[in-house]
Write a structure and sequence with these properties.
Layout lengths: L2 H27 L4 E4 L1 H7 L8 E4 L3 H11 L2 E6 L4 E6 L2 E7 L1 E4 L8 E4 L3 H6 L9 E3 L4 E3 L4 H7 L1 E2 L5 H7 L2 H13 L2 E2 L1 H9 L9 H12 L4 H10 L3 H4 L2 H4 L13 H13 L14 H9 L4 H4 L1 E2 L5 E2 L3 H15 L4 H13 L13 H11 L3 H10 L6 H25 L10 H8 L5 H17 L4 H18 L8
Parallel strand pairs: 2-5, 10-11
Antiparallel strand pairs: 1-2, 1-8, 3-4, 4-5, 6-7, 8-9, 12-13
């Protein structure tokens, strides 16, 4: 460890000590053991300030509550059946869990929780050695029975016990291995890799919500490519997003990559590179952009066709891919907004292609902006990231074309308020001009004026009224009575 890293670690420990000394003294005075454990210890040893303050104790939940009520500013039940009680002291939030050991029955989706009696026993039952270290309070004494500090130094993920036994006790650890590979940038040792592959079907007993949470954390990590490659290499992806497996060994239509899987990973990395700071339009890390980048070509296997001359095409893979992504994300229990936004970006990601060859009309630009809506900034980044050609001139040409499109969007936005494209006459004005009340005719008129605005831009209220009256006369005379307006 270098001198600067040692300094960082010392700084973290100095900042950490006053946060946890008080709670450590409160529990030891009451006759109980308590230690900072897991991720916070790992991060502190890496010289990173812990975001969470997770502790483990010999006290049972009701005993933990009794100690906390005399010390903390607030106490609440996080999961009593799992031994976890929450507390707040000043600005610091703590989660305190009784020593325990968890295991799944063969056909159960929920682990059985057994409270333990020793810190060492609690550490041996944890997922990986780098998460199986504790700092005994109040003195911050390191407890490391499984060799976690060594593995942290080697940047290796190993299980404290045999990986087959560990993954059998908690199959979700298979996903955690991929997630920590992404978050920490660590490798997974060969024995664990083999167990991940051989035991991947055990993930079927784990709830989709828990798998979704681990997969989301993987995608939001510093190196999601590493975790995704691990999932595909071990066939774990077959149990989570099987469509990723189909992307391997597929030549794309331009023969730029050995397979669409490699292209998808490159697009993901290039999209991540375009995420912004916290005050920018797409703050990092952005789950929607990352999911859309990974899945943007997920429709290619279903649309692949071999044409004359050995040409491979994937016509409408954007539309098909959006449907596949929507179905898969729904099965994984993602929230409705994420499903909607990711699938919409996938459906739109091909829209730009062809702009460089034939400049769009202002109407086409308006529709591009309106269809993207609040996803426009993400669509900009996804479209740019989708250019992975090794042909420098072609890449420069595509970048210049998109620069031009963004410039036109900016110009039209300044002139026409494109972020809120709507007819120049609202519903009340339409009813007043046409002398009609609320009903389907108002909706038809509104749609007509919106389409006119898209095609012609801002024309002023007088012109809008004129074209509305002309449309109304033609529509009213030609619309068969009782026919539904589309």
């Amino acid at each position: 460890m270098g001198r600067s890293e040692v300094g960082q670690k010392d700084e973290v420990f100095q900042a950490l000590k006053p946060k946890v000394t008080g709670i450590g003294e409160a529990f030891t005075r009451a006759g109980y053991e308590i230690s900072l454990v897991g991720g916070p210890v790992r991060d502190a040893l890496l010289g990173l300030h812990p975001h969470d303050l997770d502790l483990t104790t010999s006290a049972r939940p009701e005993e933990t509550e009794a100690v906390l009520h005399d010390w903390a500013d607030a106490v609440w039940d996080v999961g009593r059946n799992y031994g976890t009680i929450g507390a707040r002291k000043g600005d610091d939030i703590f989660e305190i869990t009784t020593y325990r050991s968890d295991e799944y029955q063969r056909d159960s989706r929920k682990p059985e929780v057994h409270f333990g009696d020793t810190l060492e026993g609690d550490l041996w039952r944890r997922d990986f050695t780098v998460n199986a270290m504790a700092l005994r309070l109040p003195d911050l004494e390191l407890v490391d029975p499984t060799g976690g500090a060594r593995d942290l130094e080697e940047q290796m993920l190993r299980t404290p016990i045999a990986p087959e036994e560990s993954f059998d006790d908690d199959p979700l650890r298979i996903m955690r291995a991929a997630r920590f590979a992404s978050q920490l940038g660590f490798d997974v040792d060969y024995a664990a890799l083999t167990a991940m592959q051989n035991m991947r079907e055990r993930l079927r007993i784990v709830s989709r919500e828990r798998i979704m949470t681990e997969f989301s954390r993987l995608m939001l990590g510093a190196a999601p490519r590493r975790g995704l490659e691990l999932m595909v290499y071990t066939d774990v992806a077959e149990e989570v997003i099987p469509e990723l497996m189909d992307l391997r060994d597929m030549q794309d239509e331009h023969k730029r990559h050995k397979d669409v899987w490699e292209h998808s990973l490159t697009v993901l990395e290039q999209a991540i590179a375009q995420e912004t700071g916290p005050d920018g339009p797409v703050p990092a890390p952005d789950l929607v952009l990352r999911l859309a980048s990974l899945l943007h070509d997920i429709g290619k296997p279903a649309t692949r066709k071999f044409e004359a001359g050995g040409v491979v095409t994937f016509h409408q893979h954007d539309i098909v891919g959006a449907r596949i992504a929507r179905r898969r994300l729904k099965a994984l229990k993602f929230d409705k907004a994420t499903i909607r936004d990711v699938s919409k970006l996938i459906a739109l990601h091909q829209r730009f292609h062809g702009y460089g060859d034939q400049e769009w009309t202002d109407s086409a630009v308006r529709r591009y902006v309106t269809d993207a809506g609040p996803l426009l900034e993400r669509l900009h980044r996804l479209t740019r990231a989708d250019c992975t050609t090794r042909n420098v001139k072609k890449a420069e040409r595509l970048a210049a074309a998109y620069d031009d499109l963004e410039a036109r969007i900016k110009e039209l936005k300044e002139k026409e308020e494109l972020d809120a494209v709507r007819p120049e006459l609202n519903g009340d004005e339409i009813m007043a001009i046409l002398g009609i009340g609320p009903g389907r005719e108002v909706g038809a008129a509104y749609k007509f004026l919106l389409a006119y605005r898209m095609e012609n831009g801002l024309v002023g209220s007088e012109k809008a009224e004129t074209v509305l009256r002309d449309w109304w006369e033609k529509w009213h005379n030609s619309e068969p009575k009782g026919e539904k307006v589309s």
